[in-house]
Design goal:
This protein has 347 residues and is α/β, with parallel strands linked by helices. It is built from 15 helices and 15 strands. A five-stranded mixed beta sheet has the order 9-8-10-7-11. The chain has a four-stranded mixed beta sheet with strand order 4-3-5-13.
């Protein structure tokens, strides 16, 4: 898929403005005026599989900010299922920025009055600086001969996936499966529902988050196939070795777009807006996009030396499901389709 070029809007500011950021060392008074604090700390509340990505982003951005402003910035990270992370922010976790698994979760934070409802217009590409998709991680040699979505309906196949009630990645998994089935020749909502019902009956473990599902598959040895974020599958391949697992990329899958946003109420109260905004904009910079590519995400502006990515036919949530609000209402709210097809214990 060809990505639209984006513009990197620099929000780097002069020392006096940058120095207004809070949660840092106390400023020293000089001639009755407050000098800029020498350090600042912000919190990035993110979803499960982004730990390694943001560890490198944080180091790179901190060096960049120091060079531009002279100020030391420390970025703290919090990770978990995207839905649970959104709830934690709504309940009082003081996130300066959120980098969650899907737009619906940030919309929920906006509905709670913590950020601008028009948050997706604040950054390019609807505030999604990178994308991913859903692929399959299988045991070495692919002993179950899984090559595409149709193969997940085989009898006796054991699947591992995260839980759509708590994990943003899990909702992408569900929509990827449902969307694929509905888009097949003769496909309807009825045939798609039948397909995903059969798929989830084969799920041996439904973990609360994407990282937990990866651990169940790679470390606990559960299941034949892990339904995974593409970037998480590449990380697992790197960490446990190509002699143990391999990635199967379906011909068609959902275009997963994890969004980012500044939490307005928090940054305005703490005085951290300048550094929080610059932190998110850094994701769109040349170096930010290089880091994104190195961690298995699909950069909006891939570097010339970026690792190659598998060719997939994508479908979007907007085109296939009428947007996230409609997808949430139809498939994931209490009593909706997922609750109807998946019943723990009896299934």
């Amino acid at each position: 898929m060809n990505w639209r070029p984006v513009v990197f809007f620099s929000s780097l500011v002069l020392f006096g403005v940058a120095g207004s950021c809070g949660r840092g060392e106390e400023s020293r008074a000089t001639g009755g005026a407050s000098a800029a604090p020498t350090s600042v700390e912000i919190l990035n509340v993110s979803y499960d599989p982004t730990r390694e990505l943001y560890e490198e982003i944080d180091r790179s951005f901190s060096a960049h900010w120091k060079a531009q402003t002279g100020q030391t910035v420390t970025v703290k990270q919090s990770h978990g299922g995207s839905g649970k992370q959104a709830r934690a922010v709504i309940d009082g976790l003081e996130a300066d920025v959120v980098t969650l698994g899907l737009a619906y979760d940030i919309d929920a934070i906006a509905e709670a009055g913590l950020l601008d409802p028009a948050w997706q217009k604040k950054l390019p590409d609807n505030s999604t600086p990178y994308a991913s998709t859903i692929v399959f991680l299988v045991r070495k040699g692919n002993p179950k001969n899984v090559h595409d979505w149709a193969d997940l309906g085989k009898e006796g196949l054991s699947l591992v996936a995260p839980n759509p009630k708590t994990s943003g990645g899990a909702r992408w998994v569900y929509l990827a499966a449902y969307g694929w089935a509905k888009r097949q020749p003769g496909g309807t909502d009825a045939t798609a529902r039948e397909y995903v019902a059969k798929l989830y009956k084969s799920v041996a473990v439904l973990d609360s988050g994407a990282r937990g599902a990866t651990t169940s598959f790679t470390e606990r040895g559960i299941g034949d196939v892990l339904l995974s974020w593409e970037n998480e599958a590449h990380l697992a391949l790197k960490e446990i070795g190509a002699d143990k697992v391999e990635i199967v990329t379906p011909k068609e899958s959902v275009l997963a777009e994890p969004p980012v946003a500044v939490v307005d109420k928090v940054v305005d109260r703490r005085g951290t807006r300048a550094v929080a905004q610059a932190y998110l904009e850094y994701l769109y910079s040349d170096e930010g996009q290089r880091i994104v590519g190195r961690h298995g995400y699909r950069a909006r502006r891939p570097a010339k030396d970026a690792p190659p990515v598998a060719q997939i036919t994508f479908f979007s949530v907007d085109d296939t499901f009428g947007g996230w609000q409609n997808a949430q209402k139809t498939h994931f709210k209490d009593g909706a389709l997922f609750d109807q097809i998946y019943r723990p214990g009896g299934k």
